[in-house]
Specification:
Blueprint: H1 13-19, H2 26-29, E1 35-36, E2 42-43, E3 64-69, H3 74-88, E4 91-96, H4 102-112, E5 118-122, H5 126-131, E6 135-136, H6 142-148, H7 151-156, E7 158-159, E8 162-163, E9 166-171, E10 174-178, H8 189-199, E11 207-210, H9 216-219, H10 221-224, E12 229-231, H11 232-235, E13 237-242, H12 246-261, H13 272-280, E14 284-289, H14 294-300, E15 304-307, E16 319-329, H15 335-344, H16 348-358, E17 361-362, H17 365-368, H18 371-374, H19 377-387, E18 389-391, H20 402-415, H21 419-436
Parallel strand pairs: 3-4, 11-14, 16-18
Antiparallel strand pairs: 1-2, 5-16, 6-16, 7-8, 9-16, 9-17, 10-14, 10-15, 12-13
Signal peptide: 1-19
Pfam families: SBP_bac_8 (PF13416)
GO biological process, one term: maltose transport
Length: 438
Amino acid sequence: MKKSVSMLLVLTIAATLTACGSKNNENTGETNAGTVNNTGTANNGTTNNAPAEDAELVPEEGATLLVWESKEERPFVEKMMKEFTEKYGVEVKMEELGAGDQVAKLTTDGPAGIGADVVLFPHDNLGKAVAAGLVLPNDEYGDLAVSENSEVAVQAVTYDGVLYGYPRAVETYAMFYNKDLIATPPTTFDEVKEFAKTFNDSKNNKYAFMWDIGNFYFSYPFLATTGGFVYGKDGQDKSEIGLNNAGAVEGATYFASLKKEVLPLKSGDVTYDIKKGLFTGGTLAMNIDGPWAIGDIKKSGINFGAAPIPSINGKSSVSFSGVKAWYVNSYTKYPNAAKLFARFASTKEAQLDDFSLTGAIPANKEATQDPKIQNDEIVKAFVEQFKNSQPMPSIPEMGNVWMPIGASLSDIWNEGKDPKASLDNAVKQIQDANAAAK
C-alpha cells in the first residue's frame, strides 16, 4: 500500500500457535470476541482482540493464500497481493468470483478444503455464512475494525453480537439530478412536489422524479424514515417486525401521495432500466440510483450532480445500505496469514487505494474525510447518505421480506389500497414464512 502501517514482528512461535484460530477452537473465539456495545466500542470481556501497535500475527511457515474477488476489483486486489507478498513473503493468488456467489460456493468448497482462504461478500449474506460455520470471527483485529470504520459498517458485519468482517467498502443509493433541468437539488419531498407541478409533461416523457417504486430496496426510505424497520435489534430479531407500525404506515401514506403529485405512472412503468434511460436521455430531472450507475451517467454526457435523498415529513431520509468486507474461511489451513491479509487489505490506506482504482466508497471514517472523497461532489453525496442509512438485515429470514413488501407497495401505489391494511397483510405473510422455516 502507499502508506503501510509499520509494525515489528515480535510474537514468539509459541504465541503464534496460541493465537492461531482453527476450526477446532472456533467456539472459544466466538464467546465474546468482537461484540459491540451501545457506545460503538468493542466489548471483548477481559481479552483485547487488537494486537499491540508493535506486534502482529506471524504468518504460518510455508503459508500461501487464495482470495476470491470479482473481475471489477482485480486492479485493487492485485496491488494488495503484490504488496502483501513483498512485506510478509506469503504468496497470494486471486480467483475471480462475484461477491454474491461466494457464500454458496464456500458452502461446498470450504469443507472440501479447496475454498479461498479470504473471501468477500455483501453483509446480507453473513447470516447464512455464520449458520453454516464458514467464517471465523474477526478476533485479532476487532478493536481496530470498530474504531476505524463507521458504526453502520461495523454493525453490518456483526452477527449475533460477534464481529466477523473486516469492512472495506460501503454502498447505498442517493439522488442524481440533471443540473440543466434543476439547478439546485431539493432537500425535501415537499419541494419535489412543487417542482413536479411545473415540470412534468407525460406526452414528452418529462418527469421530475423517479425511483424503482415496486422494489423494496429503493422504496425503504418511505417506511424507515418515519419510524418503520424490518426486524428488531438492528435487524437481528426476526420475532419483531416493524414494517406495519405507526411510523411505517405514516411513511406509506406519504408514499401514496407521490403518485398524484409527482409520478402519475404505474409502478410497472417505472422499471430500473426505463428510469435510467430517461435520466441519461435528459428528460428526467431526478433519479434515485446507486454509485454503480455513475459510469454510465458520465458516458451519457449530461450535466449531473448528486445529493442525499430529500427528507420526508421533516425527517432525513433513511436508506438501505450494504457493506462489503473481507472474511476468513473457517477451514483455512493458514488462519494467521489469512487474518493478516484481511487486515492488510482493509486499512485506511487500502480503502483509499480501492477508491482510486475502482471507485469503491470507503468504510473507514478517516478515509471518507480524505480530499479525494471530499472534493468529489458525487461520491461525497453517497458518503453523506450512508451516514443516515441502515444496513440490510443479515439474518436468513430477510429472504422472506422482499416479495410481500414489494407487492404491498405496488398495491398501495397502483390500486390505492389502504396502507395499514396492505402492510398488515404483508407482515402476516412474512411471519408465516418465518414460522414455516423453523
